[in-house]
């Protein structure tokens, strides 16, 4: 990622200067995406460094989720760049500037080579981290942007249609949006502690119910702390004749690790369903005081409603 950051930042300066000199919105559009690449890679590096910090008394899960915050921020940067390019293209369609297609073509070819090199560097980690995947997608989109600028420069050189530059810039922005939305959706799903996209909740439920000795399950939760770090908690109602520690728990862990790759598992075994078995979210998150009062049959003493104010306490002599 450091190599990709160095390559991308160096070419960002070249492409921005070239876009200003040649008056090419397509080059400026590609430079804007390059700027988001530089920010994405820099944030990704910081996120990786912060995410490796050890757990402490305040953050028992550590700082791994900082990576997801960085990925969401990168997606928002891409959305902002796309909006800016579309607006600038609309403005330029009314007053197309004089372009220099030869300069556009030369700079775009250099940009294509830089993007290909950066993609090869990032390719190995794109499937292991949403953060790296976000940076990879941005560099990949810039590669397509460079191809678009090359095509636009050739068309302008042959036909003289300067408005092609604005059209190419808009197409670059629109091409990136679906992949940006996918990255943002994945990041938000993790932040909301939703079920990971590659985990089938019903399949996990059926697997747990198929374990010998399991009568029923409830309060099943599956979420991801960050990319590739899936956690699971569940309450299991087990048969009293089957040992939970020696038979049920080892089999549950083996099935979850083997079939779904889930190794961070917390299982509570019960002989009777607890009060969370109704799968009511409000019931899951009752306070300890509310649980104690309800379970013990405690009821508050309610004074009969009257219009008269309560009697003042007598003063002791």
- The N- to C-terminal Cα distance equals 81 Å
**How is the biggest beta sheet arranged?**
3 strands, mixed
Average pLDDT for all residues? 76
What is the overall number of helices? 10
Query: Secondary-structure element order, as H and E?
Result: HHHHHHHEEHEHH
Give the spatial strand order of the biggest sheet.
1-2-3
Low-confidence stretches: 280-296, 298-310
**Strand-pairing-aware structural class:** mainly alpha
Q: What is the number of strand segments?
A: 3
Overall shape: elongated
* Strand coverage percent: 5-15%
Helix content: 55-70%
How big is the Rg?
A: 29 Å
Q: What features would you describe in this structure?
A:
It is a single chain. This protein has 317 residues and is mainly alpha-helical. Helix content is 62%, strand content 9%. The protein has helices spanning 2-22, 25-51, 66-94, 101-122, 130-159, 163-191, 201-209, 244-260, 281-284, 288-295, and strands at 214-226, 229-238, 264-270. A 3-stranded mixed beta sheet has the order 1-2-3. A hairpin with a 2-residue loop joins strand 1 and strand 2 (229-238). Helix 2 runs parallel beside helix 6 (163-191), helix 3 (66-94) packs antiparallel against helix 6 (163-191) and helix 5 (130-159) runs antiparallel to helix 6. The longest helix has 30 residues, at 130-159. The radius of gyration is 29 Å and the shape is elongated. It starts with a helix and ends in a 22-residue tail after the last helix. 34% of the residues are buried. Mean pLDDT is 76; it is low at 280-296 and 298-310.
